Amino acid sequence: MGMTLTEKILAKHSGRDRVSPGDNVWVDVDVLMTHDVCGPPAIGIFHKQFGDDAKVWDKEKLVIIPDHYIFTNDKYANRNVDVLRAFAAEQDLPYFYDVGTDSYKGVCHVALPEEGFTRPGEVLFGTDSHTCTAGAFGQFATGIGNTDAAFIMGTGKLWVKVPETMRFVFEGASLPPYLMAKDIILQIIGDIGVDGATYRTMEFTGPGIKALTMEDRMTLTNMAIEAGGKNGVVEPDEVTEAYVKSRTNKPFENVYSDPDAEYHSEHFYNLEEMVPMVAKPHSPDNKATAEELEGEYLNRAYIGSCTGGKLSDFRAAAEIIRGHKVKLDTYIVPATTEIARALETETLYGTSLIDIFREAGCKIGNASCAACLGGPADTFGRLNNEEVCISSTNRNYPGRMGSKQSSVYLASPYTVAASAVTGVITDPRVFIQQTVI
Amino acid sequence: MSKKTEPIKGKAFVLGKNVDTDQIIPAAHLVYSLDDPEERKLYGKYALSGVPSEKSGLPQGNIPLTQDDQTESEFSIIVASDNFGCGSSREHAPACLEIAGIKAIVTPSYARIFYRNSVDGGFLIPFESFDDLSKEVHTGDELEIDQENHVLKNLTQNKEYNIKPLGSVADIVHAGGIFEYARKHGMVA
Predict the structure, then answer these.
(1) Which residue in A204, A239, A372, B69 has a CA-CA distance of 20 to 30 Å to B41?
(2) Residue of B25, B31, B110 to mutate for A, most A C-beta atoms under 10 A
(3) What is the pLDDT of residues B1-52, one digit of tens each?
(4) In angstroms, rounded to a whole number, what is the distance separating the alpha carbons of residues A88 and B118?
């Protein structure tokens, strides 16, 4: 019997010919990523366990990307970035993207591919649940805690229980003009529930997936964790190779699922039959179509994060916002500094994306995680009271974006932008069809 | 009998389903040092402070895990419904519960990373129940977990429930965490 892509990667990295779901294996780690929230405690554990003078197992494989609490006056948060800075200096780390320097990047899950750290066939761990984003590049990538990260820093290894794989097959030649990858993943999470993929791999495949860009694929794998998934994965193809080779010279080996691999379950979707989806407060699986919620009250819109703050997300939002004034307080937060720069240079009908947003009355923030996870009270865009926000981010449990009294609807950048323009929840097909005509 | 398998006794704190890591420890509080002996106590103060008040300490609700001026709780066993600890990978979640005085959790299912962090960090023991006991147990009930026989005893209500053996993570739990386990097996000096 064959193996899935995930099983093959875990077998190779644990020195075995094959592994099966349920096996506990120790794998060699290709990349460990950490940030300003979980880096400092991981560093504390590393030194406690391996000694004050200990060195990390391979400084070429450790990537530190401060991104969570960056533009804040919180003294503890700023102290935590100082801890990362001191560690990077002490360990002479080549890949530390320091705040306040030209190398500062922003959101780690978008920064990793931009800097060439996401490569097919590899094993990547990160101290953040959305590390599963990197599975879009055909690798095994998952989130871990501080203790596991400290263990990797010292040994380069970690134990993994081999997950079963759920296969999501997409028919359809391309995304309909009104549909975004965010709609697809909200539909899936709504169908299987927030624990529908717990302990499992979510493998996305079929002709519909081949038609997606890398950024679209990243949106899918990014939210595997919102169904409880251990990792999300897309087989590499020419789209993957073109992206990765434009970002790194490091060699990599494509890995594919065998035709006779065994799956936990198979789920079929047709892109051409799917519609804009929304997750209502207070759970990512609380699904409704945008059409069903048409006219619901809102007082804020937010476009940003690893899930919905990529360049294509802003292009989509700008298509709808262009020529309008927003009726909601609308926050625009590019995931990375590279995307922030692209907002200045990318144009739509001769106007830069950033000018489209400015002219519409949007508030523009600096590249970082910002209000996606609330953060310190002075965080840009944070919901500090009873706000009702529609957001392109990933999670809407109580208090996720700040106050416990606030409410969050999750949607695609198209739907968020359409709602920002009208002031209430709005199906973006109203605008997209106008554009097409 | 090793200390790790002795009965765990204490008062129950009951929660519903999908208690995510932002409810366990809201993101604004993730800034405190876990290494500083005084600063880390703040995690005990704010543990479970993100749970909507009416869902905190069921069935009555409006019961905080730790009183306003305290960093340790009078409760030591959490009983919850499905998918406990979903959301982020923050290890501050099991850590804050341990700092507040929680020794064990009993729920039908956990989110993967929270479960793993609880085990590998040696913070508390994540037991799995066969049924959802969050509707049966009341906050404040006196509980005892018999680890040898895999039984949860509700001493207040005089009821007993079977719980699942720890399975493949038992060795790490009983060692006290991944580092202790790895040292026992010669993987770490």
Answers:
(1) A372
(2) B31
(3) 345 689 999 999 999 999 999 999 999 999 999 999 999 999 999 999 999 9
(4) 28
What mean pLDDT comes out for the span A34-38?
98
Share of residues in chain A with pLDDT > 70 (%): 99
A436 — pLDDT class (breaks 50, 70, 90): very low
Largest CA distance in chain B: 50
The tally of domains found in chain B comes to 1
**CB spacing of A44 vs B35 below 8 angstroms:** yes
Residue B70: inside a domain: yes
Token look-up 């509700």 returns B154
Please report the residues numbered 15 through 74 in chain A whose beta carbons come closer than 8 angstroms to any beta carbon of chain B.
24, 37-38, 40-41, 44, 48-50, 68-69, 74
Residue whose structure tokens are 């009271």: A385
Q: What is the DSSP letter of A200?
A: S
Q: Which domains does chain A have, with CATH numbers?
A: 5-247+265-269 (3.30.499.10), 278-436 (3.30.499.10)
Distance from CA of B20 to the nearest CA of A (A): 7
Amino acid B4: pLDDT:
65
- What H or E segment, with its residue span, contains residue B179? helix B178-184
Q: Which amino acid is at B77?
A: I
Is B33 among the domain residues?
A: yes
Number of residues written out for chain A: 437
**B149 falls within a domain:** yes
Two structure tokens written together for A391: 């957001």
Q: Is the ipTM of this complex over 0.90?
A: yes
Q: Could you tell me if residue B145 is inside a domain? A: yes
CATH number, domain of B15, equals: 3.20.19.10
Which whole-number Å values give the CA distances from B44 to A118, A148, A392, B68, B71, in the listed order?
37, 22, 32, 11, 5
Domain coverage including residue B21? 7-184
Paired strand residues for A410:
A279, A391
